[in-house]
Amino acid sequence: SVLSSPPHQLSSPPTVTSEQIERLHRRFKQLSRDQLTIRKENFDSIPDLEFNPIRGKIVHAFFDKRNLRQESEGLADEINFEDFLTIMSYFRPIEMNMDEEQLDRFRKEKLKFLFHMYDSDHDGKITLQEYRNVVEELLSGNPHLEKESARSIADGAMMEAASICVGQMGPDQVYEGITFEDFLKMWQGIDIETKMHVRFLTMETIAHCY
Amino acid sequence: MFLLLPFDSLVVNLLGISITVLFTLLLVFIIVPAIFGVSFGIRKVYMKTLLKIFQWATLRIERGAKEKNHPLYKPYANGIIAKEPTSLEQEIKELRRSSSGKALDTPEFELSDIFYFCRKGIETIMDDEVTKRFSAEELESWNLLSRTNYNFQYISLRLTVLWGLGVLIRYCFLLPLRIALAFTGISLLVTGTTVLGYLPAGRCKEFLSKHVHLMCYRICVRALTAIITYHHRENRPRNGGICVANHTSPIDVIILASDGYYAMVGQIHGGLMGVIQRAMVKACPHVWFERSEVKDRHLVAKRLSEHVQDKSKLPILIFPEGTCINNTSVMMFKKGSFEIGATVYPVAIKYDPQFGDAFWNSSKYGMVTYLLRMMTSWAIVCSVWYLPPMTRQPEEDAVQFANRVKSAIARQGGLVDLLWDGGLKREKVKDTFKEEQQKLYSKMIVGNHEDRSRS
Q1: B434, B437, B441, B443: CA torsion to nearest 10
Q2: Can you tell me the distance from the alpha carbon of B181 to that of B194, in angstroms, rounded to the nearest whole number?
Q3: Binning pLDDT at 50, 70 and 90, where does residue B386 land?
Q4: Long-range own/partner contacts, residues A132-137 (CB < 8 A, 24 or more apart)
Q5: In the sheet where B226-231 sits, what is the strand order?
Q6: Can you say whether the dihedral through the CA atoms of B237, B242, B244, B248 is positive or negative?
Q7: Which domains are present in chain A?
Q8: Which residue spans traverse the membrane (chain B) (predicted)?
Q9: Contacts of B392 by beta carbon, 8 Å cutoff, 6+ apart
Q10: What pLDDT, in 10s, does the model give residues B49-104?
């Protein structure tokens, strides 16, 4: 049945209404075919998702233990409804009554989610190879694009990132990779917290007498 | 000789008289108008009466729910989340613009580009467009059919009695009547066309064949109590053209064919269908394929173009979606029929689900169950719009032409125009669609990259 209390690991007070939770629960049951947990294969039943070039990374994000706020490392095999809600909570819309500190935490949470998407080996840094992977995935499927072009685009972007984060580098310096702090720096000025959310439609009820 | 009690003979006589009277009434009020293509307007009156009753029933349910202080749930047709309408390009431009100091026309790849796809992905995981389309459209008022009622516990005694009466009428009166009519219609069609098969080809045969077909389809329309409104009949398909319509159920054929004389296209089935098909083709040249031939696209295309090029032959009736959709949207049209190069006459069919849901969910119900459901509904109400003819422009390919026709049909019928393949109900997505989205994105990035390296 539906969650009776919100997951205690959430750092901010829960803002999803019980109506919304109930609808997500119905969706969860649809995806899991009435089982209690979802595995990676269950996401295959969503045709619209095939559209998406980073489908693999998105599905992966659901099972990433860092996103699930679990202590251990690596990937979970299956997730239950509480975990599903935890992932969905990264896409909560911003609230009117949030103060500076809450907003900042809100933003960091969302950016951490994106960071984990890039950092596939979980070492806390986005290396050149990982960056290349993402670019290649996004640009794959274009028959006219050679692998070399995708690579050079990724390399160029990485250089640019390095220059933002570290400034001018000496000829012998090697840029290890983008850490989360550097990542935050690059997103400065972009209001991700206002764009990274999914809004619920209000459900219609006919007679509503409480 | 044995003695019959006077009581028995009275009963037998009464029975005989009432059956004869019923039969005569049937003949006069239903079949004769069907033969001549006129209508007494009985069905429209029936429809209006039913509507009043439904409104009353819905009000009772609402009142019942209010008394018990529970909210009623209207099933949501639009999904549970508001999907962002911005396109890929818009979104990426906005994200780049908001980051400081970067010029718009020198983008290569930005970390933020991933964001659009990420959000779209989460949106589809939360709520999927496609699987929603394949279940029957959900109603807002109750039409006294238990199959469409979700708020069953709020029904009072009066409503239950009404519903019971409805069941009685539908199953004991309407159903046998409709079955009798259907039987008449089909047997007339089979015998009529077989007889016509013996006539030599010529104007007389054509004329008779047309009227036999029309008459039998009209009887079948009455067998379903279908109340059809035709719009723009001046755009009806002509010889040498292809008539294209959206597909909700096998009844679509009967609806269109009762207003025009078409050549059908399809696969030969066994059983009763096969008998009907074989009889029909004796009177006029329909295009039937064997099961093995259907797979061969070139053969199909060849036979269709031969038919179309012969101007004396009838317009072909085709449903390009390939499967039944639940009449809230139009799915992808298969391009085969649009490659032939004939004039296309689009037709939009929209059913009003209030009287009876015509959608055939072939994965849920078989054909017989479906027909039974149809014949025990109140009525099938629909509108047919004949749209002006379209031809393929020189700079379009078949797929673009198909999409253009599809949009016109969707717009006219008030249906949502979806790019998805109706075949998705059964199979998975084709990889070409994934490519489209990726191509668009990479064009944006690579195009700009190339510009930069050139300068």
Answers
A1: 90
A2: 20
A3: very high
A4: A134/A54, A134/A57, A134/B114, A135/B109, A137/A53, A137/A54, A137/A56, A137/A57
A5: B226-231, B380-386, B343-352, B241-245, B316-318, B263-267, B287-289
A6: positive
A7: 18-90 (1.10.238.10), 100-194 (1.10.238.10)
A8: 12-42, 155-173, 179-201
A9: B338, B341, B344, B398, B401
A10: 888 887 777 777 777 766 665 545 444 444 555 555 555 556 666 666 555 444 44
Question: Would you give the end-to-end CA distance of chain A in angstroms?
Answer: 23
pLDDT in tens, B39-60: 777 788 888 888 888 777 777 7
ipTM of the complex: 0.78
Which of B84, B92, B118, B427 to mutate to test binding with chain A, by most A CBs within 10 Å of its CB? B118
What pLDDT does B363 receive?
Answer: 64
Q: Residue B306 is encoded by which pair of tokens?
A: 């031969």
Residue whose C-alpha is closest to residue A209's, from B409, B172, B154, B386: B154
Tell me what percent of chain A is helix, strand and coil, each rounded to the nearest 5.
50, 5, 40
Q: Which residues pair with A178 in a beta bridge?
A: A126
With beta carbons under 8 A apart, name residues in chain A contacting B82: 199-201
Q: How far apart are CA B149 and CA B240, in angstroms?
A: 46
Nearest CA distance, B129 vs chain A (angstrom): 7
What value, to the nearest 5°, has the Cα angle with vertex B82 and ends B80 and B83?
115
CA distance readout (Å), B423 to B334, B413, B429: 10, 21, 9
CB atoms within 10 A of CB B256: 23
Evaluated on CA atoms A77, A81, A83, A89, the torsion sign reads positive
CA distance B219 to B418: 35
Residue holding tokens 């900042």?
A104
Residue spans of the domains in chain B: they are 177-432
Distances (CA, A) of B121 to A48, A58, A197, B351: 8, 7, 12, 33
Q: Strand B287-289 relative to strand B263-267: parallel, antiparallel, unpaired?
A: parallel
Residue B384's SS3 state is strand
pLDDT band at B388 (very low <50, low <70, confident <90, very high): very high
Distance from CA of A99 to the nearest CA of B (A): 22
Residue at B123: amino acid letter: E
Which of B93, B124, B425 is most worth mutating to test chain A (most A CB atoms within 10 A of its CB)?
B124
Of A113, A145, A144, the residue nearest B118 (C-alpha): A113
